[in-house]
Amino acid sequence: MSEPVRKESKNPDVSRRQAFVQLGVGSICAASAGAMVFGYEFLTPNVLYEPSPIVNAGKPDGYPPGTVTQDLPSGLYLVHGSEGLYALSAVCTHLGCLTAWKPELGIVACPCHGSKFRRDGSKIEGPAPRPLRWLKIWLSDEGDLLVDRSEELSRKQFVRT
Amino acid sequence: MSERKDFVASFDSDSRKTAVRVAFVTRRKSPHVKVHDDDYVMTFPEALFRGAVAVEILALLLVLLSLFWNAPLEKLADPLETPNPAKAPWYFLGLQELLHYFPPVVAGVLIPTLVLIALIVIPYFKINVQAEGLWTRNRSARLRILALTVALFAVFLIAFNVYAVLIPTLLMAGFMFFAATNRAASGRFHRWLASKPLSFWIMSWFLIQAAVLTLIGTFFRGPGWSLVMPWSGDI
Amino acid sequence: MADTLETQLPRGRGGRVWQSIFRSGLGDTNLRRALAIQQNLFLHLASVKVRKRSLSFRVTWFLGTLSLGTFAILVVTGVPLMLYYHPSVPQAYSDMNDLRFVVSAGLFLRNLHRWSAHSMVLLVFAHMFKVFYRGAYRPPREFNWVIGVVLLLLTLFLSYTGYLLPWDQLAFWAITVGSNLISAMPIVGARIRFLILGGNGVNANALLRFYVLHCVILPLAAVAFVAIHFWRIRKDGGLYHGGSERHE
After folding, report:
1. Across the interface, which of B80, B81, B99 has its CB nearest the CB of A113?
2. pLDDT, tens digit, for every residue of C132-177?
3. Cα Dmax for chain A
4. Closest CA–CA distance from residue B131 to any residue of chain C (Å)
């Protein structure tokens, strides 16, 4: 059975040794790959003790037409424009600083790198790559405004009151 | 096959080890010995004690600094209030200054990655190992390349309004052109500049650039990352 | 009895106890001075002899030695600081105030740690530029230059992770801005930021991860790379000593 093999290679020990080396290196590689997957899984928290992304912004009556209200704890702007109520994230799209509404200028300004935005979130100037994020907003059954901070909308959405 | 030679060819420059030496001097080379083998001293105690004294002096200075100058501590971290201006540690302020001009992918990822790769490959590139002055050969061709590069870069910088990079770059280019000028009776400074290789110019440009950006970010940026004077108290 | 005591008693350097620890004995001959380096686990990273020229202040400005010195100060001040520090929110911040007002010499240790950290970053940068301008990165020292770049990165990471630990406004927003930089990386950026912070924002998980990085992982890595860095100086033919060195 082992005769043909012996004829091909001069020293059967060498090929056998190579096979074992390959087996060893291969199993170390497999183990490393497994360890990396395991490490990635371990380092990713499965439960986060962070505030819920969905916040209750209260009754729509609290936001009269033509106003911009900054809700500090949730990092939101609730704007009542001509088309209705909408929610903007106050987190700057540049590097995550918390922007502030400047009522005297009628703009949103970021303190970190000087980005400025209009009340619809579009950029006036500064290094921010994108406009402020539009967030999903809807009325609950109880008539409260709910905003989902984790979901960015691609189209503008309004709540009419 | 060949006959046994009664000498052995080797490299050596120590007259104490090898008494008789033959130097083969090829054409256009001179048998000038630039450096003799250095004198050696024992690491213990010479080097160790010098190092220890240096570290002791530094420790003394740091202790004095710590006794008279307290480390800053602001109020408790508050995710609801961004301080104005919000600044990174000083060694990242050059980067933060760039972030003011360019989108994060460029200033925050591309530029640091390129700088890092450039630093790592320095000793593996021939231009860095060369010690020959930049202008000693191909002067006119190199002048044209430099002028073109600087002009293109300047247009790019003006388009993005990055004067904090533009001015040091032009200054550096000015020095390079000055070094390229042919002057019969050149001063010491000119001769020193003229002897510098390309790697010197690139690194010096990087050093000056990093220093200028860091200084601007540290001392001249106030609320909303606007330009202020260091003594205005807003930084 | 008295006889044995006399011979057993240590008599300072060169005595029996001394010799049981340091085999080399007194440094009174060049052989023993060489053994003092070569027989020591830590010192034998360095060569037994050095070029006299490379010892002058002009050549190195002692920047590498001083960087190592600041690192030593940081370890010596950092470990006692750990005894009064809890990496949790908002306890970390009140620990800072305890260090300032309650713990004896706490203020001093924190100051020394902070200023040494800034000095180390400055010294490591200066060391890099000095090595470059002397041309000391040229072959055969090219790999030691790369190790040096790794050490520069480790220094920056060490300083940056330490920056969050006081959990004050300065710390929180510097890390918020810095970590958002990571997420600017295409494709993997957001995942990497999530892994480093252990969450979607800078919070208690991030503080704990930065604490472990700052106190365990990065210092151990730094020690290993510093050892290689020093050892390579010897292996690459000692400190660079001028422009006319030849390599065949």
Report:
1. B99
2. 998 888 888 999 999 999 999 999 999 999 999 999 998 999 898 8
3. 94
4. 9
Question: Do the chains contact at B43 and C47, CB–CB below 8 Å?
Answer: yes
- The verdict on residue A159 lying in a domain is no
Same domain, A64 and A29: no
Q: Name residues of chain C where pLDDT drops below 50.
A: 1, 243-248
Residue A8 class from Cβ within 10 Å (0-12 exposed, 13-18 middle, 19+ buried)? exposed
Rounded to an integer, what distance in angstroms lies between the CA atom of residue C149 and that of residue B129? 18
Angle between the N-to-C axes of helices C91-101 and C106-134, in degrees from 0 to 180, rounded to the nearest 10: 100
Of C176, C180, C203, the CB nearest to A50: C203
Closest chain A residue to the Cα of C204, Cα to Cα: A49
Closest-approach residue (CA) in chain C for B63: C112
Q: Do A95 and C177 count as a contact with CB atoms less than 8 A apart?
A: yes
Range of the domain at A140: 54-152
B90-138: pLDDT as tens digits: 888 888 888 888 888 888 889 999 999 999 988 888 776 677 788 888 8
Contact check, Cβ <8 Å, B224/A95:
no
**Cα distances (angstroms) measured from residue B48 to each of B53, B152, B155, C65, C110:** 9, 51, 53, 10, 29
| A49 contacts on C by Cβ (under 8 Å) | 204
pTM, rounded to two decimals: 0.86
Parts of chain A with a pLDDT under 70: 1-10, 161
Evaluate whether residue A48 is within a structural domain: no
Identify whether residues A81 and A138 lie together within a single domain.
yes
Residues A28 and A106 in one domain: no
The CATH number that applies at residue A147 is: 2.102.10.10
Assess whether A142 and A105 both reside in one domain.
yes
Torsional class of C2: left (φ above 0), alpha (ψ -120 to 50), beta (otherwise):
alpha
The whole-angstrom separation of Cα A79 and Cα A90 is 12
Contact residues, A window 69-128, toward B, CB-based 8 Å cutoff: 72-73, 75, 94-95, 97-100, 109-114, 127
Query: Is residue A86 domain-shared with residue A124, that is, in the same domain?
Result: yes
Instruction: Label residue C25 left, alpha or beta by phi (over 0 means left) and psi (-120 to 50 means alpha).
Output: left
C-beta atoms of C125 and B120 within 8 A: no
Ramachandran angles phi, psi of A74, nearest 5°: -100, -5
Among C110, C142, C152, the residue with its CB nearest the CB of B123 is C142
Domain of residue B170, residue span: 90-232
Number of helices (H) and strands (E), helices first, in chain B? 9, 1
Per DSSP, the three-state class of A107 is strand
**Domain identity same for A39 and A67:** no
Asked, for residue B50, whether it belongs to a domain, the answer is no
Beta-bridge mates of residue A81: A84
Q: Does domain C66-80+112-235 have CATH number 2.70.210.12?
A: no
